[in-house]
Amino acid sequence: MLTWRIEALHLKLKYTWRIARNASNEKLNFLVQVSDGTYSGFGEAAPNIRYGETPDLLLQQYQVLLMAGLASIKSMEELLQLLTEHTPVNSLRFAVEAAYLHYYCQVKQIPVHQLLGQSIPVRQATSFSLPIMEPGEVKDFILKHQLNRFACLKIKVNSEQGPDLLQEVLSATDKPVVIDGNESWKEPESLLSFLNTLDKKRVLFIEQPMPASEATAYAHLKLHSPLPLVADESVTDNADFELLREQFNGVNIKLMKAGGYLNAVRLLQEVRKHGMMAMIGCMVESSLGIWCAMQLSAAFDFADLDGFMIVEDEPFKLVHEREGVLYLQ
Fold first, then answer.
1. Partner of 154 for a Cys bridge, out of 75, 97, 178, 265, CB 3.0 to 4.6 A?
2. Could you tell me which of 120, 95, 151, 175 has the C-alpha nearest to residue 295?
3. What ranges in the chain are assigned the alpha helix state H?
């Protein structure tokens, strides 16, 4: 019989992480472990309140899985059946699946990427995200953190400060920039007015500027936007890709949203099938979560895997960054 355990990961952040809907100075994630006494596997859960995920709910659902027979499973098929019958929030589902898959790979002496049918992960260039801040703070922030070593910068914006904040970033760096609106715009015409002022040579695309519920508005935006639109909050563990293609040019897949490696691979296949750009992203996570994402990242067009770099005293040191490129330890 397997032994499962869960523990809290209290991740203190290097600075205030502010996006359009909230701000924080620390993050509470969870580490899930499964072991047979000889081999062990680990997975990370990074709950996100945007999707109704809270630490208390995650812990309650973990106990449900234990009572439903988690310790007795003997195969990935049995685990997937259990997770279907007692479906937890996606971040916990990912942590449990990842822990077991990592354990299985240890037992069978199979690399994780090979089991997933992916290329061997060697290195991965990543963008780096700036939180929302006062426009006057941007230049010093970029200098202090030496952000020009990254090939691309991503700036979190809201509808109120977006234009000023973006202009400061473009003035402080010659790197290409991605905008992440985190659903902050409510009026499509206001958003279009903003987008039409941008230099398309400097700004690559914009992520999820309006709420995911605004399907009609997104269809209108895609027809008129001078920039590609990339879905983030509109895609979790499932999506209507026929509809999604009418609204967006690309999709940001995150393992924590997808609810597992296997579903992330399926979502990537759907993105390719529908001729859309594929981006792999992350939450604020430890290097364990980023290590997991790097098992898939070679198959994507764009990577935003910087979540571990804003953590003070990151606990696992499974990934390191040099000159804007990630390497597995």
1. 178
2. 120
3. 55-67, 76-85, 90-108, 112-115, 138-144, 162-172, 188-195, 215-224, 241-247, 255-258, 261-273, 287-294
Question: In the block, which residue shows the tokens 């047979």?
Answer: 36
Report pLDDT digits (tens) over 156-196: 999 988 889 999 999 999 999 999 999 999 999 999 999 99
CA separation for the pair 252, 254 (Å, rounded): 6
Say how many CA atoms lie within 13 Å of 112 toward its Cβ. 21
Backbone angles phi, psi at 206, to 5 degrees: -125, 135
Alpha carbon distance 234, 66 (integer Å): 31
Report whether pLDDT(271) > 90. Answer: yes
Average pLDDT over residues 120-135: 96
Residues in the chain: 329
**Higher per-residue confidence, 161 vs 239:** 239
Task: Name residue, tokens 């790197």.
Answer: 175
Q: In this structure, what is the dihedral angle of CA atoms 119, 318, 96, 279, given to the nearest 10 degrees?
A: -50
For residue 36, give the DSSP letter. -
Tokens of 101: 């898959």
Residue-wise pLDDT for 199-214, tens only, equals 999 999 999 999 999 9
